[in-house]
TrEMBL record:
The chain crosses the membrane at residues 24-50, 62-91, 97-120. This is Aminoarabinose transferase C-terminal domain-containing protein. Residues 140-235 form the Aminoarabinose transferase C-terminal domain. It comes from Trichlorobacter lovleyi (strain ATCC BAA-1151 / DSM 17278 / SZ) (Geobacter lovleyi). InterPro entries: Arnt_C.
Length: 247
């Protein structure tokens, strides 16, 4: 809206004093965006200091979650936002619609092309269970059962196996009610009974989910791998050489 107001008033040849508030507001928004990108990208590096000072706890989301932006990405995005803010300032001083248009279009293009690459790459790293899925596919025996707590889209893809879903069904909610799907959609009580059986179980779940049920798991869970908060566990012990490095 602020950009639209600036375009209209610049096109009408109005002087900078008549839209000073909108001009200043837009520059502030863009500058705050620049500062926010830089600060957010450096938060992981500041975590040890924040923990030592007692400002955050070790289990705070700030500590346990991966930042979407790296310091390099935060700096680049910050420069793009600052460049757009400078464009607004210069365009208002020179009363140039063309300068404003070119500057904002270039900034938006860079945010779309460069920014999207940085952000989506980190989101993929955070969300994907590729490494854990590939490991599960390698270790799952013919008679074994693959389980995920909540529907995990990447797990069937990387394992090439159908997955038993515990709890939330997500986008499979509708299909889970077509016919008898009781063997594929179960609750935690049925999972515990399945775990205690003779068949090999490999399950993908989060740390807090394991903490909630680990007292009921017999035999105790063997951790095959970990990626951030996600764990891959089994009810059958494996050689240490079969485990994967934690991320």
């Amino acid at each position: 809206m602020l950009i639209g107001i600036m375009f209209v008033r610049l096109a009408n040849g109005e002087t900078s004093t008549t839209f000073k508030a909108e001009n200043l507001s837009l520059m502030v928004v863009l500058t705050v965006g620049a500062v926010g990108c830089v600060i957010y990208s450096w938060l992981p590096a500041l975590v040890p200091l924040l923990v030592r000072q007692g400002w955050v706890s070790v289990d705070n989301r700030l500590v346990t979650k991966i930042a979407i932006l790296t310091p390099t990405a935060g700096g680049i995005l910050g420069l793009i936002f600052i460049g757009m803010a400078m464009t607004v300032f210069l365009a208002s001083r020179k009363q140039s619609v063309v300068l404003l248009l070119i500057g904002l279009l270039c900034g938006s293009y860079l945010l779309e092309v460069v920014g999207q690459q940085f952000v989506l790459e980190r989101i993929a790293l955070k969300k994907s269970s590729r490494e854990l899925g590939q490991k599960a596919g390698q270790l799952l025996r013919k008679e074994g059962v693959l389980v995920s707590f909540g529907y995990e889209q990447s797990l069937p893809f990387y394992t090439r196996q159908r997955v038993v879903v515990v709890g939330g069904r997500g986008e499979l909610e509708f299909g889970s009610k077509r016919g008898d799907q009781s063997d594929w959609f179960i609750d935690e009580e049925r999972f515990i009974k399945l775990w205690q059986g003779e068949r090999q179980i490999i399950a993908l779940l989060k740390q807090d989910e394991l903490k909630r049920i680990e007292g009921s798991l017999y035999p105790a869970a063997t951790v095959l791998g970990q990626k951030f908060k996600k764990l891959l566990i089994t009810n059958k012990r494996l050689a240490s050489s079969e485990r994967i490095t934690k991320n």
